[in-house]
Amino acid sequence: MLNDSTTAAVLAALAVAAFTCALFGAGARVLRQPPVIGQILAGIALGPSLLGRLPGDPTARLFPAHVLPYLGMLGQVAVTVFMFSVGHELTAHRRQAAGRAVVTVAVGALVVPMGLGAAMAVLGRAAFGAAGEPRAGSGTFVPFIAVAVAITALPVLAAIVRDRALDGTRAGTVALAASGLMDAVAWLTLAAITLGAGTAGGRRAGVQQVGLRLLLLLGLAAVLLGAVRPLLSRWMRSSATVPYHLPVAFALAAGAAAATTALGLHAVFGGLLAGAAMPHRHESPDPSPGPNADPTPGPHSDPKPDRVPIPFLTASIHAVESLLLPLFFVTTGLALDVGSLRLGDFVLLAVVCVVACAGKLGGGYLGARLGGLPRQSSATVAALLNTRGLTELIALNLGLASGVIHKRLFTVLVLMAVITTLMTSPLLTALGHGANPRGKRGSRPVEPTPASTYV
After folding, report:
1. How far apart are CA 379 and CA 322, in angstroms?
2. With helix as H, strand as E and coil as C, how does 319-371 read?
3. What is the pTM of this model?
4. Residue 440 phi/psi, 5° resolution?
5. 13-23 tens-digit pLDDT
6. C-alpha distances in angstroms, 339 versus 21, 53, 393?
């Protein structure tokens, strides 16, 4: 029962999580890293990896066991809202996805790392088994590892593109559009994996259950994209509807999340579909540019208004995220313990990092070159696509919750996500795309957006 003492403990935990994540995120910004790096490290620091090792176990005092279910629930609400914004971002770049370079980059940067990841999972079955994975080499474990090393975090990538003044350039445009395509395929694959992990009965019965649920999921997607989106698009044309955009968006996300949960999937899939179903429309006849609008028109920019996310809606969604996402970082940090890793686990971490980077950098560069981009732009695209972050954490939490992976490998993969994301800024600097501390691109200021707070 949620009594006064439990309420106080939950609010205190939220205060500690929010302050620590804000502090670490600000530190990451000072070091010219995405804030999500600092926020992930904040969650790790508050967990058993650091704070929990101090005398008296401060972690258990700050986050007592009886409040963890409430913290987890609030964190999942935040993640569902975040995935709504991811789905919204995916469709913002859909018009750019028809170019040859976008397709070749998406194929190269997805197929190559997934292939390498699958090969690593099969050939390294003994190493994964030693890391506490009894199902290493199984039909759900192998594709999960393949997807885990192939994910690109679109929100993190978009923030880096803005920060490095790459918005409007061919490399930035191709990277964003290709990331949208790859994320769509990756999340569909994850949906199939989690459905397969949750089936019961024999193999034939399991396949039938997965097939039926996937059909129902596709039916839900068809309704949201084919019926709900056009209706919302017509409704949102009037500026009088602007005050109701946020509650309608939240209702859509919650309803879709409830539907995917009923199908045996995680709520984040519903949030993702709801975000894709939310139209992109200006909120007034003379709107200001949205956070993803190109600062200057160019041959690869798209001035059409439905590419620009609604500023009011986008800012409001990220405000909701910023209140609760620290709890997700904390619950993630509580689920891993770096101190529990053995020497063999660190060797596995090194191998996973090499495979993840080789797949993304090599596949992205090759795809960009085949798409006609010059060497410099191809290298920039490859470096951008090696970005992971909160999106990776959500996928890893799905694997942990569904029993596909366990805590030691979960810790290894979280560290891989941090390390590979840390690499992006130095790589871009080495390629001549230095950070822009004055926030300028030419003579036009590039203002920070709410979307960059938790990416």
Report:
1. 33
2. HHHHHHHHHHHHHHHHCCCHHHCCHHHHHHHHHHHHHHHHHHHHHHHHHHHHC
3. 0.82
4. -120, 150
5. 999 999 999 99
6. 21, 9, 19
